[in-house]
UniProtKB/TrEMBL annotation:
FAD binds at residues 32, 61, 97, 391, 398-400. Its main location: mitochondrion. It holds the Pfam family Pyr_redox_2. Belongs to the ferredoxin--NADP reductase type 1 family. It catalyses: 2 reduced [adrenodoxin] + NADP(+) + H(+) = 2 oxidized [adrenodoxin] + NADPH. GO terms for molecular function: oxidoreductase activity. It is found in: Mitochondrion. The lineage of its organism: Eukaryota, Viridiplantae, Streptophyta, Embryophyta, Tracheophyta. InterPro entries: FAD/NAD-bd_sf, FAD/NAD-binding_dom, Ferredox_Rdtase, Ferredox_Rdtase_adrenod. This is NADPH:adrenodoxin oxidoreductase, mitochondrial. Its cofactor is FAD. Keywords: FAD, Flavoprotein, Mitochondrion, NADP, Oxidoreductase.
Amino acid sequence: MAIYKAAKLLSRSFSSLSSRPLRVCVVGSGPAGFYTAEKMLKAHEEAEVDILDRLPMPFGLVRSGVAPDHPETKIVTNQFTRVAQNERCSFFGNVSLGSSVSLSELRDMYHVVVLAYGAESDRVLGISGEELAGIHSAREFVWWYNGHPDCSNMAPDLKSVDTAVILGQGNVTLDIARVLLRPTTELAKTDIASHALSALEESSIRKVYLVGRRGPVQAACTAKELREVLGIKDLYVHIDEDDLRTTPADEEELKNNRIRRRIHELLSKAAISGTSHPSPGQREIHFVFFRKPDKFIGSDERSGHVAGVRLEKTILKESVHPGKQAAEGTGQYEDLECGLVLKSIGYKSVLVDGLPFDLQKGVVPNYRGRVLSCASEDLAQVEEGLYVCGWLKRGPTGIIATNLYCAEETEHPHLPWQSQAGRQGLQQLLDSRNVRAVPFSAWEKIDNEEKQRASLRSKPREKLTRWEELLEVAAK
Ligand code: NAP
């Protein structure tokens, strides 16, 4: 392959670069961005790394995506803070790629631009009724309970409904199910946004359905997260035992995958333990398999609001991908009543001007992180000095640590570089546009304020969730 050879010739380990200053810009301050910055700083003592983020605070998915009851996952921010405090590293919060500065401007100012801004949009189902009120993407809901300033006004209705349906059975689904079903006294000790905690304290949601288009063998979650949901205090768990029967094709999948076997065991155990009916007022979780959403049903009483989901029963068929079975509709339908729907079917990256994108795969076309000019392997050229890392590079899958390997894999060029404007050029450009960048020291003011506010409530942090407030505290 031509690209492979070209990339091999141009690339070599970053550690062997000469001692000339190298201006690096990393866009996105989540795990992929910080691991990349750390790698750059360690590998070359002359590298100057600027990390841009459209939010006034760093850490991306660690702050806005990781569930509030998973504090151990957030410890990695200590490591990222040390990276940001390195004298050769600068953080530019409140700087948006596309509106504050364009990709071509960044490429003119820096030798290396690494895009690590993740996946901030949602896959859609494309079925009738998807626009009804009461239907949200999982991302919006997660951002809401994590205090992301873009979703602090979301106000999902948890008060006038008793049933929620979550479509998809990945780990994000399990995070949301825990937040909806865990006792709020437990959530109160976390860094959950206070607006979300208040709404959950008043929530009337008692039943949560997790709907998967395939079977228990294919559920996309992991064992630790499943155990946590099944272990929620005083929760009635319903799993249809018939769904747990496996076919030879399922057995083949199980044989090759220890995680899938563990999930199947946990679900099988949960299906036969516990009571056969919920006790009055008990919260319930229902695992629904072999059902795909066909359309959303509008309410007669509340015009424009969702009242249910029509599901089509599915069977599994061998797919084009060997060893992977696909769900196929059977033409049999059933309706599931609900007042809240959360579509947890995966995230999607947002495009920026001048960046090639493979719409089919939902990633920037790349060879080991080097951006290619188009998705077609035969026609693609390597885009000099432009790289991707994280979800933008490989799609919205994997845990935080996956980004460490992803950053490691990204190859960097050995090119004779010209002197570039770098940090100074960026600052001048932002000043000329009246963009008020938030440096890391200003984030530390936000951080202190959040911790101080939390000290009165025995929680780790009370997040500031509004743009004005965040910028105001940052500017103090
Ligand atoms: P995911 O793991 O890809 O799960 C997506 C789910 O949506 C799957 O069940 C998938 O079913 C289903 N789906 C996709 N398209 C659908 C459609 N058109 N109709 C019906 N169902 C559809 O994605 P995720 O849950 O958003 O998680 C993203 C990544 O973050 C994952 O790698 C996850 O492990 C990670 N994460 C980890 C943690 C943690 O470690 N605690 C927490 C949150 C997220 P199919 O399998 O049939 O496609």
